[in-house]
């Protein structure tokens, strides 16, 4: 792996440990050229996953898109580090997608996985994601969707 500081491909792994319930691997590396020590997180590779959207169009899976969607959904999140929570949820979702061992997934399928994770994590977060993900524009529509997903409505 290339050193992010001097760009020489001469790095050595100093230490390794799994993180995020084994969905990622944390490695400490040292550059043999400039001596800098830095940390990398290696996540399951979903860069070849194709997402089929509701419109029938497809696009490549994007970690950033998933992360930012969940981040936006967590607008009112209180009680801890939002970044940590969003990061954890995103990685758990990616781990689940990897376990499907598929090259194509529908946005609907991703949505269901996301909703299940959010339901466990934070109901307030979950509500916002539902409104965001399902393109819900009015109250009646939101209520209809909620009765499908939330046991307490
Ligand atoms: Zn270096």
TrEMBL record:
Residues 49-141 form the ATP-cone domain. Pfam families: ATP-cone, Zn_ribbon_NrdR. GO terms for molecular function: ATP binding; DNA binding; zinc ion binding. One of its GO terms (biological process) is negative regulation of DNA-templated transcription. Binds 1 zinc ion. Keywords: ATP-binding, DNA-binding, Metal-binding, Nucleotide-binding, Repressor, Transcription, Transcription regulation, Zinc, Zinc-finger. A zinc finger (unnamed) spans 3-34. InterPro entries: ATP-cone_dom, NrdR-like_N, RNR_NrdR-like. Its cofactor is Zn(2+). Negatively regulates transcription of bacterial ribonucleotide reductase nrd genes and operons by binding to NrdR-boxes. Belongs to the NrdR family. This is Transcriptional repressor NrdR. The gene is nrdR.
């Amino acid at each position: 792996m290339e050193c992010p500081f001097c760009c020489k491909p001469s790095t050595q792994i100093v230490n390794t440990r799994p993180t995020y319930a084994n969905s990622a691997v944390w490695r400490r590396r040292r550059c043999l050229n400039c001596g800098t020590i830095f940390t990398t997180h290696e996540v399951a590779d979903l860069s070849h996953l194709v997402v089929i959207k509701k419109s029938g169009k497809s696009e490549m899976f994007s970690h950033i898109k998933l992360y930012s969607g969940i981040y936006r959904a967590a607008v009112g999140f209180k009680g801890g580090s939002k970044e940590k929570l969003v990061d954890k949820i995103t990685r758990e979702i990616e781990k689940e997608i990897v376990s499907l061992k598929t090259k194509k997934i529908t946005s609907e399928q991703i949505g269901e996985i996301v909703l299940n994770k959010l339901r466990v994590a934070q109901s307030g977060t979950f509500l916002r994601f539902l409104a965001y993900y399902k393109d819900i524009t009015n109250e009646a529509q939101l209520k209809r969707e909620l009765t499908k997903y939330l046991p307490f409505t």
